[in-house]
Specification:
By secondary structure, the chain is an all-alpha fold. Helices cover about 75% and strands about 0% of the residues. The chain contains 10 helices and no strands. Helix 3 runs antiparallel to helix 8.
Length: about 230
């Protein structure tokens, strides 16, 4: 896999990392842990572990499924299909950027007491949330499409999928790391980071969707001779 596609995968992973909902839930767990004077690490890591597990499983199954169908149907990915794929993905990203984004996240209260007693339940919550989130994540689906388009698949492609999913969880992990520190500076950075992500995350995602979409469209148009 060449550097351009690895860079594209990294960009999609960073887009996925700007997930306001994951940050909001992480912040809610941290806040509840502080109220009960407990460490938030077990709950947050359990939650993010659930999201990570379902994300990796979905990615591996998707790539394997596409590869199985390619072998079964004796399908050959030609340059024409490849650049048409880039063009379609680019248009989808720009279209998604124009859709309204709901930045609210209801944390509710019913889950609080059971989770306080059994932090591993946050893993179930993360797994369940991932089941709804991962199949509708446009950056992740685009990244999986780019990876699946490689023929032959890179030997370390499962590692690439796992690495993508880990990068997509960087911001909640940073929030947890800052919440674990007791220094005034860490607390200030924590508050600024959470406020900044909540306020500017969705607009940044829109802009980056447009940038990546235009990049894919331009690359397809540069090779317009192979579209037909």
């Amino acid at each position: 896999m060449d550097g351009y596609r690895l860079l594209a995968l990294l960009g999609f992973a960073l887009l996925d990392a700007l997930d306001v909902l994951l940050v909001a839930i992480t912040t809610a767990v941290v806040a509840d842990a502080r109220l009960t004077r407990r460490s938030p690490m077990a709950g947050v890591l359990s939650f993010l572990g659930g999201v990570f597990a379902i994300s990796v499983a979905f990615g591996v199954c998707t790539v394997l499924g596409i590869d199985f169908l390619v072998r079964l149907l004796d399908f050959e990915l030609t340059p024409t299909l490849r650049y048409w794929g880039e063009l379609v993905i680019g248009l989808v990203l720009i279209a998604v950027a124009a859709l309204p984004v709901d930045t609210t996240a209801s944390t509710g209260g019913r889950w609080v007491e059971p989770v306080r007693r059994h932090p591993w339940l946050m893993g179930v919550i993360g797994f369940t949330l991932g089941l709804a989130k991962v199949p509708t994540s446009v950056p992740y689906l685009a990244a999986l499409a780019l990876l699946s388009a490689q023929r032959p698949l890179p030997v370390v492609w499962p590692v690439i999928v796992a690495g993508y999913c880990a990068i997509a969880l960087i911001l909640p992990l940073v929030v947890l790391a800052l919440a674990m520190r007791r220094t005034p500076r860490a607390r200030r950075v924590y508050r600024l980071l959470v406020r900044g992500i909540t306020r500017f995350g969705p607009p940044v995602i829109r802009v980056l969707f447009v940038v990546f979409g235009i990049g894919l469209i331009v690359d397809a148009l540069v090779h317009a001779g192979r579209l037909w």
